[in-house]
Design goal:
Distance between the termini: 36 Å
Number of strands: 10
Order of helices and strands: EEEHEHEHEEEHHHHEHEH
Number of helices: 9
Strand content: 15-25%
Structural class: alpha/beta
Shape: globular
Helix content: 40-55%
Radius of gyration: 20 Å
Bound molecules: 5'-O-[(R)-(carboxyoxy)(hydroxy)phosphoryl]adenosine
Largest sheet: 5 strands, mixed
């Protein structure tokens, strides 16, 4: 008999609900919040209020699109953390109430685990192509940059992670500094396609092992632009494509250097990427070219699964559900890891 999983994601500024039949996607509905655009970043209080407004219509629409009644749901999977506490509270409270009302099991999911497992969501009519275990996942988002060794859907080892900023933050802060808006990644990605990635060089971090650091390169960009603009106030405007292309290439070089090291240290050739920054076209191209050169099998998520979505939460929840894990009703959301 198949299981119907309702996934709920509310960790940041997207309210999302998805329905899976086992691992097959029946619906995935996301309401993105436009209210933050004027502020250059997500405003936590506004985010939680918007989740409160969105959550009922989003879940109703996901069930309707899936052609599933609430009473058919076998388990509810929700993001318990990490993320913005006020945002997580909305999804967590709603998931708990619904599980009481429907008398159905509740399963908690770690948001990052959702990103890592996004590639296991299956879709009707789309050929199945999934990494075999163990595989390496480069997890790159606005809050995290990690290299994860995935031994099984529920057994992860973090081989390396950022010691300061996440790579998505570096994209966002660079964009803010250049007056290009928020979120920065998509804008920089678009401008980088028009520029010369070799034109400018930025300081690379020296961090031992498989860990990352992205705060130094951000400062390097800041000083570079400030110095150039002191002699030519139009420098940034005239060179924004080349600045974006060079900055993006430097970030990708940093990411890839450690990923290559992790692959050679572990001997693993199954390599995936996940998280918001995995939408970056430069990173995707580099993963493919590096994979070809090194004999890796590379797994890139579909664009719709790169940003926050409930399909990835539902699939991660499905694995927890099969393993018999259940979340108690007194579980509180958590904003940070560990
Ligand atoms: O995973 P995500 O949606 O949210 C969390 O942080 O959990 O990631 C958001 C991050 C933002 O920093 C955004 O700028 C970045 O993903 N991003 C991109 C691209 N699209 C989104 N970064 C680089 N290139 C992109 N095309």
């Amino acid at each position: 008999m198949s299981d119907i999983i309702l996934g709920i994601e509310s960790s940041c500024d997207d309210t999302s609900a998805a329905v899976l039949r086992d691992r097959v996607l029946l619906s995935n509905v996301t309401a993105s919040q436009q209210v933050h655009k004027d502020y250059g970043g997500v405003v936590p209080e506004l985010a939680s209020r918007a989740h409160e407004l969105n959550i009922v219509p989003v879940i109703s629409s996901a069930l309707e699109k899936a052609g599933v009644r609430a009473s058919d749901v076998s388990a509810i999977a929700f993001t318990r953390g990490p993320g913005l506490l006020g945002s997580l509270l909305v999804g967590t409270s709603f998931a708990k109430s619904l599980s009481i009302a429907l008398d159905c099991p509740l399963v908690e999911v770690n948001h990052l685990q959702g990103h890592v497992l996004a590639g296991f969501v299956r879709q009707e009519g789309v050929p199945v192509r999934e990494p075999s275990f163990p595989y390496l996942c480069l997890l790159v988002s606005g809050g995290n940059s990690q290299i994860v060794k995935v031994n099984s859907p529920l057994d992860f080892e973090i081989l390396g992670q950022t010691i300061d900023d996440a790579v998505g933050e570096a994209f966002d802060k660079c964009s803010k500094m250049m007056g290009l808006g928020y979120p920065g990644g998509p804008v920089i990605d678009r401008l980088a396609k028009l520029g010369n990635p070799e034109r400018f060089k930025f300081a690379k971090p020296r961090v031992p092992g498989l860990d990352y650091s992205f705060s130094g390169i951000k400062t390097s960009l800041l000083y570079f632009v400030r110095d150039e603009m002191s002699s030519d106030p139009d420098f940034m405007e005239k060179n924004k494509e080349d600045i974006c292309a060079s900055f993006q290439k430097s970030l990708i070089d940093i990411l890839m250097e450690k990923l290559v090291k992790a692959a050679s240290q572990t001997g693993i050739t199954e390599v995936a990427v996940g998280g918001g920054v995995s939408a970056n076209s430069g990173l995707r191209d580099r993963m493919l070219s590096e994979g070809k050169k090194r004999g890796w099998n590379v797994y890139l998520p579909e664009f719709k699964f790169t940003t926050d979505n409930a399909a990835m939460i539902a699939v991660a929840g499905y694995f927890h559900y099969l393993a018999g894990e259940r979340c108690p009703l007194d579980a509180a959301p958590y904003s940070r890891l560990g």
